[in-house]
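Methods — Computational structure assignment.
A single polypeptide chain was analysed. Its primary sequence is given first, followed by the predicted tertiary structure written as structure tokens.
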Amino acid sequence: MRIEFISTGDEVLSGQIVDTNAAWISQLFFHQGRAFSRRYTVADDLESLIDIITETSHRADVVIVNGGLGPTSDDLSAQAAAKAMAVPLVLSQAWYDYLVAKYAQSSSTLSQSNEKQAWLPQGSEVVDNPVGTACGFSFQLNRARFYFTPGVPSEFKHMVAEQILPDIQQRFTAVRVPTLIKIKTFGISEAVLNEQLLALNLPETITLGFRVDFPMVEVKLLSTDTVDLKLARVKVLAALAKFVLYEGDESFAEYLQGLMLGKGHTLSLAESCTGGLIASELISVAGSSGYLDSSHVTYSNEAKCRLVNVNKTTLDKHGAVSIEVAAEMAAGAMLNAGVDFGIAVSGIAGPGGGSDEKPVGTVAFALASKTHTYSQLLFIPRWGRQGIRTVALYVALDMLRRELLGLDLAAEFGSIERRAEYDRVKGK
């Protein structure tokens, strides 16, 4: 079955707005076992729209057209559809009456511009829009069943989920819905992942995919064969064990929040080069106050001493970017807040500030608990300032993950170089 998608609009084509509708519907249909074979973006140009409607009508089984159903002069989808079908536009009395009633509810009258939304290609069927004024419509042209939809995301999503997808499922042969497994990895490149997983010789029933969400890489396993999928998952997890963060659709912050709340632990942060980035990531998830007590942006040496108890002698002897200072930052954040864990990051994100001994990309990390403090000095190459800070965010949170799961905190990270580490057990 061939399903194609057409986005319309000069703003979409020129990049002034991001086509979130296309991404959303592609994902929805993919999970229903009805992936798109092609997607197009077309300008608000009548001839271009007629051409693409005619072209796809001979090749696709289903075509979904998004946008161009509004009241303005550049909303041309209905007109283009009528010309491609070689039929006139006719008034849909039912939709016209609906619009009149809708505007009357707000003590206003239907304008001539808005009346345009009730004129549809002759022979087409109305697709209801209970949350807006532009109805959709559907018709058969040559091989393809067409569905025209408004561009407003809330209206589009409601129409697709409640009417169009069920209609497609009813009209066309049922398909087995595949199961998708997502495995989030960190510290290994997409290319190396691909080589390692191809070497596993996974069953032909398994579709293997990758998605980069820097600095993570998501591994996707898709199949309608649940037995093969379970076996493939076990093999992949075993092969990538030291690089796997977690499985599923949730964000890393959501995953960590579940672990922290489940164990009843609390956390405080001391950030230097990340400048609050870690805290921002964690509090993007509702309910993070259940475990995140506080966060300090200790950018200056004075702030490190004043806010998280770093000893000035330690700073003078080792420098702000050192395992010793990071350890004191993490311990100070934990002790001052009276929490279970403290995390600290101090580094050189660049573009200046580096030296031969500590070049740009050198970052110190520490995690303090009530029983021990572990810190490590890593060199994060290749990426610019924001890239270094983002990778540092993930290294820090991966340390917390490993602590919570009882794993070795000294993780391996592909091209990231470990330059020093320090593990101190309390009372020794």
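Note: The longest strand covers residues 417-425.
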